[in-house]
Write a structure and sequence with these properties.
By secondary structure, the chain is α+β, with helices and mostly antiparallel strands. The chain is built from eight helices and 27 strands. Helix content is about 15%, strand content about 35%. The strands form five sheets. Strands 20-19-23-21-22-3-2-1-27 form a nine-stranded antiparallel β-sheet. Strands 11-10-17-15-14-16-13-12 form an eight-stranded mixed β-sheet. Strand 8 and strand 9 form a beta hairpin. The longest helix has 14 residues, at about 1-15. Mean pLDDT is about 85; it is low at about 1-15 and about 385-415.
Length: about 425
């Protein structure tokens, strides 16, 4: 009888409580699992300390191709197999049926897709996070002459100069009304420059190509011009000469090293600011409860937080409206700026080699267009080091009974009435 009374009392305590399980993933990277029983909500959080010299954030494109989809966990595994220390990830931007992201993406200073008038999350030079709505401005410089670049990895229009890189595909797909130049990067873009330098490798493609629809390789870029842009290439570019590509994302003044899109902004300067109308988000998308993915950072801009909220699973996790999500970010994590990312069945968080949230699709994790990755620069594998494996807590809070009867869960949790 006493045992029954104990569990009844504990059920009432936990029913109005919040439990957060904390796990140190690596130095400067912490994973939390937050369960709020009242709704209920299952929430996963990654805290990333950008002031740690060993920690960084980068974006990843599905299969390293603009028009592709891939599971977030698969992107992580693919990079890990290349000996890149990826320790955690979340899904990224909304995407089209062809697999391309709706908004801009930049990987290590290389633009992949062009901006759309919605907010993006960026890491600028100096490892600083930023959220804003951006445009694209770029030009090709040859000696004292220059020509504006209309876009990257997109269809070439009248008088356009377009830049293609390996993320676009095997060929540029252009018609014969133009000129194309094969460029070889002099060196990869670094952390302080927004200028890409190239040697002109070849003019009008290779022996097997026509002057257009030129083959794209991993170590070559293609600049493609039509009309006046083609005339500029003919007048200024010759094999063996060096050219520069300068790109900016106004109003951002710093070089952008990583960028990924979302919709809409959730938090502005520490206050709830769900800007769904400004960013053309549907009203029901905003005010109905769905699984959610979000990214934000603190006032000092030295900590970035990744969030996933499971949803569409009655009795387990209901999902959040965007105002609920914004309120949670501010009240529980003191977020100063935040952006909503693709949610619903796309909502995914991976820590190490494990999927730590519970996606809503019946088929499980959904293939998505891109992802935000957390990497560890040190050569030591942080996920399997003795120092951090001892603090790892593997608890799935399916019910409060599981946590009450599990000493590991109780010993690593905090309760807030």
């Amino acid at each position: 009888m006493k045992r029954s009374i104990f569990f009844i009392v504990m059920w009432f305590v936990f029913a109005s409580a919040e439990i957060t399980v904390r796990q140190s993933v690596a130095p400067g990277i912490i994973h939390y699992h937050d369960f709020i029983a009242e709704e209920p909500w299952h929430i996963n959080i990654l805290e990333v300390h950008l002031d740690s010299s060993d920690v960084g954030i980068r974006t990843c494109k599905a299969k390293d191709r603009l028009f592709s989809l891939e599971r977030t966990s698969r992107m992580v595994l693919r990079k890990q197999q290349k000996k890149i220390n990826i320790v955690a990830a979340i899904n990224g931007d909304f995407f089209e049926k062809d697999g391309s992201p709706v908004n801009a993406q930049v990987i290590d200073g290389i633009p992949i897709s062009m901006p759309f008038p919605r907010s993006v999350f960026m890491i600028t030079a100096g490892n600083k996070p930023l959220i804003d709505i951006v445009s694209f401005k770029a030009k090709m410089i040859v000696g004292q002459s220059s020509y504006p670049i209309a876009g990257v990895n997109q269809e070439r229009g009248t008088n356009d100069l377009i830049l293609f890189n390996k993320y676009y595909g095997d060929k540029t797909g252009t018609n014969h009304w133009g000129r194309e130049i094969i460029l070889k990067p002099v060196k990869a873009p670094d952390q302080v420059k927004d200028t890409l330098r190239f040697d002109v490798k070849q003019i009008d493609g290779s022996v097997d190509d026509s002057p257009n629809n030129v083959s794209i390789t991993d170590d070559h870029w293609i600049v493609s011009g039509h009309g006046r842009a083609a005339q500029f290439l003919s007048a200024n570019v010759e094999a063996g000469r060096q050219v520069m590509i300068v790109n900016h994302f106004p109003p951002v003044k710093q070089p952008v090293m990583q960028m990924i899109g979302g919709m809409p902004r959730l938090v502005r300067n520490g206050s709830i600011s769900v800007e769904w109308q400004e960013e053309t988000a549907p009203e029901n998308f905003t005010y109905n409860r769905h699984p959610r993915t979000a990214v934000g950072y603190n006032r000092q801009a030295n900590k970035v937080f990744f969030f996933t909220v499971d949803g569409r699973q009655p009795g387990y996790s209901m999902g959040m409206t965007l105002p609920e999500l914004a309120q949670y970010l501010i009240e529980q994590w003191d977020i100063y700026q935040a952006l909503n990312l693709d949610g619903g069945g796309s909502t995914t968080m991976v820590v190490g080699d494990s999927l730590v949230n519970q996606p809503s699709d019946l088929d499980g994790e959904r293939p998505v267009s891109n992802a935000l990755l957390i990497f560890f620069r040190n050569n030591v594998d942080p996920l399997h080091s003795d120092k951090h494996s001892s603090s790892k807590v593997n608890v799935k809070l399916e019910s409060w009974f599981d946590c009450v009867t599990d000493p590991v869960c109780l010993g690593s949790s905090k309760m807030i009435d």
